[in-house]
């Protein structure tokens, strides 16, 4: 039976379930999905200007740290807990997670980045990929959903499995960082792919950590990256909004 976009993935048909989940994840986390990710660099623009990132090696090191010890891990953990709360129908818990996620963003521009993308993701999902229960979950939150929470909630409402959702989210996150850096350093297409290859194991490790993390495990050790997002606010020449 052909599925409509408003139906959850049917558990009775494994092949159809996997195909539908893959189709939706490839759509939602594609650069073509209009959440405006191309407008943000997560502070990478400042890091390039001051010379912290100058080539593929320094970029890979910077992103590896952001992924495993900074915003990447925190976003992944928030996605996991938002997904599980939405899947269980725990509206109050989801609302608390949304408040914590918004409070932990380290700078004004990063707040703009994640909240704008989260709002766009929810709005587009409602318009084109709506699902039963999505409106109720969003309405239950006292704080607008930041981007990783929006992805987690929408995926849960569609019945897309958590593990591939998380892995696809982190792949998209890293890809957007590399795309920003490729325009700033600049990098060629092949070098950009080399950085993505180098980060494959880090993406998998971060996803595995997040799947087993509690909210008490949240935290980061990437002070320089947080400083970059703060300094970007007053950077003289800018291509990106963060």
UniProtKB/TrEMBL annotation:
* Gene field: ureF
Q: Does the keyword ATP-binding apply?
A: no
Signal peptide coordinates: none
Q: Does the keyword Cytoplasm apply?
A: yes
Functionally, this protein is described as follows:
Required for maturation of urease via the functional incorporation of the urease nickel metallocenter.
Q: GO molecular-function annotation terms? A: nickel cation binding
Q: Name one Pfam family in it.
A: UreF
Q: Which UniProt keywords apply?
A: Chaperone, Cytoplasm, Nickel insertion
Q: Where are the transmembrane segments?
A: none
Q: Where in the cell is it found?
A: Cytoplasm
Oligomeric state and interaction partners are given as: UreD, UreF and UreG form a complex that acts as a GTP-hydrolysis-dependent molecular chaperone, activating the urease apoprotein by helping to assemble the nickel containing metallocenter of UreC. The UreE protein probably delivers the nickel.
> What protein family does this chain belong to?
Belongs to the UreF family.
* PANTHER family linked to this entry: UREASE ACCESSORY PROTEIN F (PTHR33620:SF1)
**Record's GO cellular component terms:** cytoplasm
Protein name stated in the entry? Urease accessory protein UreF
């Amino acid at each position: 039976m052909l599925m409509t976009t408003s139906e959850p993935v049917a558990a009775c048909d494994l092949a159809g379930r996997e195909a539908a989940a893959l189709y939706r994840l490839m759509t939602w986390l594609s650069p073509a999905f209009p959440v405006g990710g191309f407008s943000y660099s997560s502070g990478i623009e400042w890091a390039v200007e001051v010379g912290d990132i100058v080539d593929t090696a320094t970029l890979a090191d910077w992103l590896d740290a952001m992924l495993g010890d900074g915003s990447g891990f925190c976003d992944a953990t928030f996605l996991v807990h938002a997904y599980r709360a939405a899947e269980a129908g725990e509206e109050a818990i989801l609302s608390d997670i949304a408040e914590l996620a918004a409070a932990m963003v380290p700078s004004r521009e990063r707040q703009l980045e994640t909240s704008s993308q989260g709002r766009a993701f929810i709005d587009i999902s409602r318009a084109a990929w709506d699902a039963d229960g999505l409106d109720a979950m969003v309405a239950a939150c006292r704080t607008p959903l930041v981007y990783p929470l929006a992805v987690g909630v929408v995926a849960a409402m569609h019945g897309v499995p958590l593990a591939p959702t998380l892995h696809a989210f982190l792949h998209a996150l890293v890809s957007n960082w590399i795309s920003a850096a490729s325009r700033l350093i600049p990098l060629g297409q092949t070098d950009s792919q080399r950085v993505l290859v180098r980060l494959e194991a880090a993406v998998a490790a971060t996803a595995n950590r997040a799947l087993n993390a509690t909210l008490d495990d949240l935290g980061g050790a990437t002070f320089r990256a947080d400083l970059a997002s703060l300094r970007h606010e007053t950077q003289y020449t800018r291509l990106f909004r963060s």
